């Protein structure tokens, strides 16, 4: 599948300079994340037994669908394959917004595949395409509340209890090209970035609506998935997840609980059945005034950019 790889880099606004919301695809929030697994059934069972997800079914293609404790029919999918990211699925508000997004992709010269097949797991059309770095993206309609999903969901009585998918972090070799694509083509807004000593971006956080980020780009030597995140109800739920999962010999906890500087979310990192890095987090910052918001800059040398509580990620996390 070919994509437009010729977008020019967009400069970050200076401190105090308001940011206009870019025109784009109308992305509201993350709907679900699909990951490859050599044994989707075993990965799904692990997610249910150890990570707090719930079985939502499987299809004739070997995909296993897992629901959180929120309103979405499913938040995590395991598909037959080795490992890595099959798709980040973003939600737009309605059918008209999806049609507008498709037209915008065509105008931008981006190759897009439309799937109109209707099934229990695909109640409406889907648009699929890839970013210049090869990160797979899909768009579909879905639940689009005015507040973050966790805020509109009752607190589950169990732990761990993922509610919904909020963001994905991908490794990117060409940051300038991928940042430009995310802002000019996808229409995402930059919320903040962590910078290296030379001023180049180490990480960039991008949002579609109010939540701090639905996508983050991390500078790396190769393109690929870094981790997927699922929101839990609140800070206490993160701690409860940690307490439960730390007693489970089958779960490899990597880092946390921590409180990040960018986003200020309380987070816990661990591996799934395949080895993908996953995150449970809560209390992520929301941006309520796009026109008067200026993207923040963090120094990579500032330990608060990793954890305001003073810990650092292990080498296995990088």
Search tags:
nine-stranded mixed β-sheet; 318 residues; globular; disordered N terminus; alpha/beta
Q: How does this model look, in words?
A:
The protein starts with 28 loop residues before the first strand and ends in a 19-residue tail after the last strand. With 318 residues, the chain is of the alpha/beta class. Mean pLDDT is 92; it is low at 1-16. The protein has helices at residues 40-51, 95-107, 175-185, 235-246, and strands spanning 29-37, 54-58, 64-67, 76-80, 85-92, 113-115, 126-130, 136-141, 164-172, 189-195, 201-207, 215-219, 224-231, 253-259, 266-271, 277-282, 296-299. The chain has a nine-stranded mixed β-sheet with strand order 14-15-16-13-9-12-11-10-17, covered by helices on one side. A hairpin with a 5-residue loop joins β2 (54-58) and β3. The protein is globular and about 50 Å long. 15% of the residues lie in helices and 33% in strands. It contains four helices and 17 strands.
């Amino acid at each position: 599948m070919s994509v437009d790889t010729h977008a020019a880099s967009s400069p970050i606004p200076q401190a105090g300079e308001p940011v206009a919301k870019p025109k784009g695809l109308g992305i509201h929030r993350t709907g679900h994340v699909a990951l490859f697994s050599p044994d989707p059934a075993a990965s799904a069972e692990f997610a249910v037994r150890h990570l707090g997800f719930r079985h939502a079914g499987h299809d004739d293609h070997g995909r296993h669908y897992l629901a959180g404790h929120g309103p979405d029919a499913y938040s995590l999918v395991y598909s037959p394959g080795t490992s890595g990211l099959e798709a980040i699925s973003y939600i737009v508000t309605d059918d008209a917004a999806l049609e507008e997004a498709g037209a915008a992709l065509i105008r931008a010269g981006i190759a897009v595949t439309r799937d109109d097949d209707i099934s229990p797991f695909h109640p409406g059309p889907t648009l699929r395409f890839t970013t210049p770095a090869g990160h797979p993206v899909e768009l579909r309609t879905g639940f689009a509340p005015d507040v973050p999903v966790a805020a509109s969901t009752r607190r589950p009585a169990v732990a761990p209890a993922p509610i919904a998918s909020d963001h994905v972090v991908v490794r990117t070799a060409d940051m300038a090209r991928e940042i430009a694509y995310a802002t000019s083509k996808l229409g995402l807004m930059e919320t903040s970035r962590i910078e290296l000593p030379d001023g180049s971006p180490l990480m960039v956080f991008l949002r579609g609506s109010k939540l701090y980020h639905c996508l983050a780009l991390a500078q790396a030597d190769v393109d690929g998935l870094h981790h997927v995140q699922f929101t839990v109800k609140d800070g206490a739920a993160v701690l409860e997840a940690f307490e439960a999962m730390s007693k489970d010999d089958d779960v490899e906890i990597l880092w946390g609980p921590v409180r990040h500087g960018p986003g200020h979310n309380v987070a816990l990192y661990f591996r799934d059945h395949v080895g993908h890095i996953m995150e449970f987090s809560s209390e992520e910052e929301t941006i309520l005034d796009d026109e008067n918001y200026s993207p923040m800059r963090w120094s990579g040398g500032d330990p608060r950019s990793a954890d305001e509580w003073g810990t650092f990620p292990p080498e296995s996390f990088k």
